[in-house]
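Support request, please re-run this one:
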Amino acid sequence: MTRMQYFRHRLFRMDWKAMWKTTGLLKKRSGKSRIWLITDMVKCAVRYNAGYIDYKIAQMYKLNDEQRKTVITRGISNEIVRRMNNKEFWHYFDDKAQFNEQFKKWIPRKWIRIEPDTDPDALYALCRDQEEMIGKPLEGSSGQGIRKYLPDSWKGGGKSFLKILLDDGIGILEEVVQQHPRMASLCPTSVNTCRIATLLGDKKQGIVYAFLRIGNGKVMDNVDCGGMASRIDLDTGKLLTVGADKQGNTFIKHPMTNTSIIGFEIPFWKEAKQMCLEAAEKFPEMRYVAWDVAITPDGPTFIEGNSFPSHAIPQFAAHYPDGIGILPEFRKFIDC
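Re-run finished. Output below.
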C-alpha cells in the first residue's frame, strides 16, 4: 500500500469527532489555530503516514520536517509489521493459550484454557489454594477484558466458576505473577512490565528498543488503561526518561509511591534481554515481536508476545526531548 493509498484508507475510516476534539486540545497546548493544526495534520498524514493520534503523542506540531522524519508513525509501523511478520504465524502470539504453550520454558506459572468442555474439577484444583487469579480473553490487546478473580468466585465449585468465566468472555485463567519487590516499589497495584522489542533485521538482529510500563493505580500497567512508560537503557537496564502517559502528562516521581523514575534500575535485566533474544529465534518467520516481560523474585518471565507491536509507546514526545524519534534505531536493523 502506497502512502497515498494509506492516507485515503485512513481518511474514510477517520473518527472525525475524536479528531476535532484532539485539535481543540492541541490548540490550547500549542497556541496555534485549529485551521493551522488541521492543515499541518494533513501534511503529516501525507508525508509521514501519521494519524491525528500520532500527531498528538509525538507532539509533531513542535517538530520541523527533519525531526518528523524520525517518528515511527502508525503507517510506518504497519508497513514494518507487514514486511517482517508472516501472518500465518501470528496465531502463536495472538492466542494467549498457544503463546503460553509455545513459550512454556519461560512461563512457570500455572494456567488453564477456558472453554465449554474445560474440566471443572481441574479448574477448581488450580484455583482452590489461590488468593487471586487473572482471567483474560484468548485474544485482544491494551488490557481489554482482563479481570481479577478472588476466592468468592470459585467457592461454589468448578462448574459454577466455569460458567462465570465463560459469561465474562474469559479464554485463559492464570496464576497471578508475583513481581520483584523492587518493581512493586514503583506501583504495587499492577505488575509493571518491560516491553522489549526484538527485530531480526537484514542489517542487524537484536533488541531495537525497550520501555518499562508502569501502572498508576489500576490492575493493568498498559498506557491505554492510564499507565505510563519510561525508556530503558539497553545496556544497563536503568530508566532514562521521565514517565509519560498517553495524555502527555509526565512524571519525575511516581504519583502514588513517590519513587524516582529516572535512574530506576530493573532487576535481572541481563536475564530479561537474553530470554527475549532466545525466544525470538523460535519462530524466525516472526521477525519483529514486542515481548511483555515481568520481573519476579526469581527472574524474568513472559506475560505475552505481540505479533503487531503498538507504535504508541516508542514515540511519546517526552522520551525524545531533542525531537529525534526512534526511527533511526530501526534503520540500524532494516531499511524503512
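The chain has three domains: 3-69, 84-96+179-330, 110-175. The chain has a mean pLDDT of 92.
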